[in-house]
Amino acid sequence: MQNGNVKGVAAPVEAPAAAESGMAFTCTIPASPTVQQDDDTLRITRWDFEPGAVTGWHSHGWPYFVVMLVAGTLRIHDGTKTTDVPLAQGQAYMRPAGIQHDVMNGSDHPIAFVEIEVKRPGALAELSLP
Predict the structure, then answer these.
(1) What pTM was estimated for this model as a whole?
(2) Other CB atoms within 10 Å distance of the CB of residue 80
């Protein structure tokens, strides 16, 4: 982490469209990131969210996968609208790099997910198990 932010993830900034409409998430409870691996190929981060916790406005420099550890609702803000996305435990999804967003726990219970950012996709074929 650098300056309280996960390295490689842009510092949170307020979404311009959201700021004008008054719909940006207010970060009174920050989500808690724990970097589990960070090398030239991958960054693996566990995110823990209390109810209402948010990541802050950001984008990713690499494509990434998210795998839910606990079922819950991710409330996603894209700068213009908010969408609730209910996900089951073990459910996964992928997003490309560069999409500005903020994520809030829209559930009434704590949730967690693992985020896997792929820095060098071609290097995955070269990886070997320890």
Answers:
(1) 0.78
(2) 12
